[in-house]
Amino acid sequence: MSDVIVVGADGSPTALAAVEWAADDAARTRVPLRIVYAVERQPYQLSRFSDTALDDALDQEAAEVLAAAEAAARDRHAGLAISVEAVDGGAADVLREQAAKFGEVVVGSRGLGGFAGLVVGSVSMRVAGHAPGPVVVVRNRPEWVRGEIVVGVDDSPECRPALAYAFEQAWARESALRAVHTWQLPVYAYAANAAYELDQINADHRIVATELVDSFRGRYPGVRVTIDVHCEHPVVALIDASAEADLLVVGSHGRSGLGSAVLGSVSRSVLHHAHCPVAVVRPRM
């Protein structure tokens, strides 16, 4: 569990939804909320000398956005410990640095102002693909509480931090947890003389998923868990499950050609198409 929850603010509707989501999460998990505004001065510093008036205007905008975000958070949870800060730098860099220092980061899926260009596929994608720990991308808050967290599970090492975070969320919310595990037939299975038993393959995959989930059950005895196993593409299964979820949690398996961490195809796809907020959880080094 994070010691502090960080949320990016910029005055946009999705950033406001992210602030409200983060405030709720901080209240549930009883940790402080930190609201951050990225002041990107570089595009305006075209001359050799600084422009004091422009700097003052950028600082004033940051103060106004942070004040509005703090007010929105306090409207939801008056007693919540909240700090605010304007940080010089690009949005993605600022949020990645905050993640490394504090833990969980929450962002809106489309931003304005200090987080200009914050859309799925841009800044939010870069933060989710590089920041350590959980990054929650909020398009809008669900209109009602559904009482279920969905998590994608497989037998990779990257799955364990995501599953741990999903259990923490379910525990804090007193929600059910749905673990979704998928598998696909290899190409040779479609050959005319291939011998395979679908029921047995499905049963074997259920054993894998159950053993993984059971390794966390003891820490969260009150969480009700359902394990879904499908012969289906993981993106399809996770997006379908997200329609009835308060939060979808996935790990990230991506690597770039240079070896730096990036989003995998499943994480990228669910960020674009999920029906609820998505948490991408990368291991903390």
TrEMBL record:
Matching PANTHER family: STRESS RESPONSE PROTEIN NHAX, UNIVERSAL STRESS PROTEIN UP12
Top-level lineage group: Bacteria
One Pfam family recorded for the sequence: Usp
Family: Belongs to the universal stress protein A family.
SUPFAM superfamilies hit by this protein: Adenine nucleotide alpha hydrolases-like
Species for this entry: Acrocarpospora corrugata
Entry's transmembrane regions: none
InterPro entries: Rossmann-like_a/b/a_fold (IPR014729), Universal_stress_UspA (IPR006015), UspA (IPR006016)
Protein name: Universal stress protein
Span of domain UspA: 1-139, 149-282
